[in-house]
């Protein structure tokens, strides 16, 4: 073995190389690696978060749809009930109207009948008077018998 | 291939091997630049292994350039293919550091990354067929070229001793000088503090210090020698296989495949042991 200047040269070279590596290489590469590791960890956490958010949203949307379906059913039921009510009411109103009109017509008819009866009565009286007049033209004084005839007419 | 490459009849197998295991050296002797004829003592501070140094610097700079380019354009969004590859590597090193070291230290992770990638790249030079680069260099007029920097003990020891200095530094910084000294002297045997036994306390402390000192010093030694030994042996086997003529092809392939494992493993072991040693330096509860 022959030790010489190479030993010193190699020592100096090693010091310089190690210093260079420590100063200009190691921190940069480690920084890149660690930054990426953090980014990957964050990405994975975000994906996990997204997955749970999605599951939660899915559950939420299902319950919302269920509620909407229930509400729609209620509305339809209400509408059906209301429609039945309206029909029922209309029928009742129609029934009332019918009864009312019937009543009106009946009253009118009654009035007509009474009027016709009164007219008929007057005419019968007139005819009876006229006939009696013709029969008894000579002996009967109409003025003397008017009172009697009116009483008769009122009795009729 | 090597038959025609070094076809000169005079060259023997041992010459060939020696040639491959010789560094390209330059030294300053008497005010002159001398190539390849420098004295080979245990320690010669006027000599430089040009090939180890140049290839190590080139690979280290290439690694830093590539990673810097990725770091500068790093996006935290969808990364490109290159950034993904770099991030895989950085994540792997970061995971290894976090497994073994719980404390706060901005240095250990980039240090580990640099060690792992740089050692791996230097080891990877071993997979280039042993003759290609030396022959190319020879064609360019360079006499010797030892391609794998980690087969040069200068390189491995420089790295492991740098780590060792950091271990000592953090030991003292975290535990204090007193704590560090206590760790070296009060374990594994607790010196007696009462009655007549107190006479033996200095001997116990000395014994502890020898044990802990050896264990401490063996850390950088084993760290660098393990890498150096593995790569040197692997390279030697590649060279031996290259001597076999036509038979080298299947053998070379097999050894290269096996060696892919070895070079990766050695780089990984160097990095992990660096982390472990530094983590021990931070460990206060002995």
Beta-strand residue percentage of chain B? under 5%
- Work out the radius of gyration of chain B: 23 Å
Tally of DSSP β-strands of chain A: 1
Low-confidence stretches of chain B: 1-10
For the largest sheet of chain B, list the strands in their spatial order: 2-1-4
**Overall SS class of chain A:** mainly alpha
Summed up, the domain count of chain B is 1
Give the domain tally of chain A.
1
Biggest interface, which chains? A-B, 31 and 52 residues
* Count of strand segments of chain B: 4
What is the structural class of chain B? mainly alpha
Shape of chain A: rod-shaped
Shape type of chain B = globular
Mean pLDDT score of chain B, rounded?
A: 88
Low-confidence stretches of chain A: none
Question: What is the alpha-carbon Rg of chain A in Å?
Answer: 61 Å
Helix coverage percent of chain B: 55-70%
End-to-end gap of chain B: 58 Å
Instruction: List the helices and strands of chain A in order.
Output: EHH
What is the makeup of the main sheet of chain A?
A: none
On the 0 to 100 scale, the average pLDDT of chain A is 90
Describe the structure.
The complex is a heterodimer of chains A (156) and B (286). Chain A has 156 residues and is mostly helical. Chain A has two helices and one strand, in the order E-H-H. Chain A is rod-shaped, with a radius of gyration of 61 Å. Chain B has helices at 2-5, 13-20, 50-72, 81-100, 108-124, 132-139, 153-185, 201-242, 248-282; strands at 25-29, 32-35, 43-44, 47-49. In chain B, strands 2-1-4 form a three-stranded antiparallel sheet. In chain B, helix 3 (50-72) crosses helix 5, helix 5 (108-124) runs antiparallel to helix 9 and helix 7 packs parallel to helix 9. Mean pLDDT of chain B is 88; it is low at 1-10. Classes of the chains: A mainly alpha (156), B mainly alpha (286). Strand 1 (3-4) of chain A pairs parallel with strand 3 of chain B, so a sheet runs across the interface.
């Amino acid at each position: 073995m022959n030790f010489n200047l190479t030993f010193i040269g190699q020592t100096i070279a090693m010091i310089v190389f190690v210093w260079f590596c420590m100063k200009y290489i190691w921190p940069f590469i480690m920084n890149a690696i660690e930054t990426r590791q953090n980014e990957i960890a964050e990405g994975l956490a975000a994906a996990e978060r997204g997955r749970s958010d999605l599951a939660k949203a899915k559950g939420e949307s299902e319950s919302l749809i269920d509620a909407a379906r229930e509400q729609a059913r209620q509305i339809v039921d209400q509408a059906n009930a209301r429609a039945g009510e309206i029909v029922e009411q209309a029928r009742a109103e129609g029934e009332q109207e019918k009864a009312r009109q019937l009543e009106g017509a009946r009253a009118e008819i009654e009035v007509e009948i009474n009027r016709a009866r009164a007219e008929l009565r007057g005419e019968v009286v007139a005819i009876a008077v006229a006939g009696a007049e013709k029969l008894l033209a000579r002996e009967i004084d109409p003025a003397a018998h008017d009172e009697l005839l009116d009483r008769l007419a009122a009795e009729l | 291939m090597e038959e025609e490459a070094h076809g000169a009849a005079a060259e023997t197998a041992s010459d060939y091997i020696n040639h491959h295991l010789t560094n390209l050296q330059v030294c300053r002797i008497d005010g002159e630049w001398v190539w390849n004829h420098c004295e080979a003592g245990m320690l010669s501070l006027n000599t430089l292994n040009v090939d180890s140094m140049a290839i190590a610097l080139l690979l280290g700079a290439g690694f830093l350039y590539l990673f810097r380019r990725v770091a500068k354009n790093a996006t935290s969004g969808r990364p490109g293919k290159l950034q993904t590859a770099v991030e895989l590597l950085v994540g792997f090193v970061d995971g290894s550091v976090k497994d073994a070291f719980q404390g706060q230290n901005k240095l250990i992770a980039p240090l580990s990354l640099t060690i792992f990638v740089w050692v791996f790249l230097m080891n990877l030079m071993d997979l280039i067929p042993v003759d290609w680069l030396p022959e190319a260099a020879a064609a360019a007029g360079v006499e010797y070229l030892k391609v794998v920097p980690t087969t040069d003990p200068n390189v491995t020891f420089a790295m492991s001793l740098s780590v060792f200095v950091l271990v000592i530094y953090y030991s003292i910084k975290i535990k204090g000088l007193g704590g560090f000294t206590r760790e070296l002297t009060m374990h594994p045997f607790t010196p007696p503090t009462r009655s007549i036994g107190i006479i033996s306390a200095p001997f116990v402390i000395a014994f502890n210090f020898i044990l802990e000192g050896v264990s401490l010093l063996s850390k950088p030694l084993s760290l660098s020698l393990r890498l150096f030994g593995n790569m040197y042996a692997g390279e030697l086997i590649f060279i031996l296989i290259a001597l076999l003529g036509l038979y080298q092809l299947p053998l070379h392939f097999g050894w290269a495949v096996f060696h892919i494992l070895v070079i990766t493993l050695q780089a990984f072991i160097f990095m992990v042991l660096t982390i472990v040693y530094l983590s021990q330096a931070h460990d206060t509860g002995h």
